[in-house]
Design a protein that fits this description.
- There is one protein chain.
- The protein is 37% helix and 19% strand.
- It has helices at 34-48, 52-59, 63-69, 109-127, 134-137, 153-161, 173-177; strands spanning 13-15, 21-23, 74-77, 80-83, 90-97, 100-107, 143-144, 147-148.
- The model is unreliable at 19-28 (pLDDT under 50).
- The protein is of the alpha+beta class and 181 residues long.
Length: 181
Amino acid sequence: MQHRKPIRTKARRSRTRKGSLRNTTSNAFHFDSAMAKAFAVLARCRRTGESPESVSRQKGTYFSVVRRLLPGQFRKVRGKWVPSKADHLSRRKRLLTEDGYITITVRGSKKAAELNQFNVAVDRFIRGEDHDPSALESFKGKRIAGLRYLTDPDKVFRLADAGIIRTEELGSDQVARGGRK
């Protein structure tokens, strides 16, 4: 009797339009995924002006992977890679509502930055000594992905007291850094 090797099963994968593989079970990327790292590289290059190659190494990925995942976001100018100023790529982000956080799809870097600024404002409002709601007031009446920002200080405090607001889980490097540099 011959000894057979066990059959390895692979996760179900399907092909997207451009031929790359993606998981069919979830369309949201994890914070440690290659796509999240690629967005982090792009954001840091735009913010600081560092070279994408060095930022990619610091984030634990290759720049060739970043270019493949974010096509058209980097171009060569005089032999150096330069990021685009803005984009219209879709991202999965978390938005604070009256029922807690929900995951929404944000289209574009400027809307994603606006949502990150809101998350920073909520974090500073909750953790600040004076609990000044003026940072939340700047988002009053604004919408993102068809939903209004939660700007009522009483509701934000109620969610914080219930333990629903945890900004460290949002995946925003701006919340961890305390805002723009």
